[in-house]
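Bit of a strange request maybe. I'm writing a small parser for structure token strings and I need a real example to test against, not something I typed by hand. Could someone generate the tokens for this chain?
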Amino acid sequence: MSTPVRVAIVGAGPAGIYAADILSKAGVDVSIDLFERLPAPFGLVRYGVAPDHPRIKQIIVALHKILERGDIRLLANVDVGTDVTLAELRQFYDAVIFSTGAIRDAALPIPGIDLPGSYGAADFVSWYDGHPDVPRTWPLEARHVAVLGAGNVALDVARILSKHPQDLLPTEIPENVHQGLLANPVTDVHVFARRGPAQVKFSPLELRELGHVPDVDIVVYPEDFEFDKGSMAAIHSSNQTKQVVKTLTDWTLREPEELTASRRIHLHFLHQPVAVLGEDRVTGLRTERTVLVGDGSVAGTGQTHDWPVEAVYRAVGYFGSPVPGLPFDDVAGVIPNHEGRVDGPDGAPLPGVYTTGWIKRGPVGLIGHTKSDATETVRHLVEDVPVLVPAPQRDLAAVTAFLEERAVGHVEWSGWELLDAHEQSLGAPQGRLRVKVVPREEMLAVMRGGA
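Reply from user aminoacidic:
Good idea to test on real output. This should exercise your parser:
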């Protein structure tokens, strides 16, 4: 092609930004537009990482540096599939990469899971992270809470529920969230994992941090500690597993009189949720005791226990959402693809359509996986450049003119810089890095220079 390859990337989280960065350095003449449904970029790093994890949120600094270079155009507050369809995008772009992530809660098909008082962890995370598309309030009414899951999101939910609100004030926690947490009556949060201590997916650092939350005790139960051959193999082969097991085991050695905090997080292993109890709302959780069978997996024993809780949060994983105009795997929650080339209805690749990140491979892996994943997708796109069908409208201004004609109030990188500075200015008087603006209209007003 005599002119730059025009590429749209849909989703400005880590996957999309890394794909844009890798593509910009791939040795082809390329022009990249990065579309984002929300007014602000950075995806789950902004809206999925707990506010008391500023170290993880530093990933935004690296992403910020990529976008501030100016060679990748951000078009935010544009919902691809609603504001503009894939077919319409193809009028302006030779190729489109979808990196829309996974933001829904995975299902947990047990009786009672839909009772009032039963929540998805992803929804709760969106609330406490100030996502603009969720309600400003959250029903914090339970004294005893169950969290179902054995990953870092389960730990985040348990920690935010049990942490005293004043200890969150140094963070970027939105004011409406702080006010909501002030009324939280919780005393005990129970985290349930169906497998043993050697199989949990907690990171060592997150687990250790849990033990340093002021006025919150961590309670573990020695009878929940079981290690089979598979467990021992995991401990010996993974330094991360070894650290997690050591931290958990050390907690079993504490004497009861050492546990004096006003709030407690209970970690239960080898307990499989089988039913949420209640008629009109949650009144309890039933679990089945499991046993390790030798390879690190478990089997049910038939022995059940009922726990009196008034709320249940399922943190059993994220799940992708369908993209209008694209095929979708309803079981895996991904866009069907082969190494990033999107599969058409007949199984053959859809020309010029690609995917990367969690919507490509499912919600697994860390930032390192996201980069390698994006590299694979971009490699195939570059291989396909000679056969890409050129988009008929190639002028950079044609896309923004189309959005304006549709009355889609898009915002660009300069708008994010205004919002970023505004949030930091809100936090500065309190010695905080930022105070996050939550309502979408307020965000957009700031980004358009109206605040």
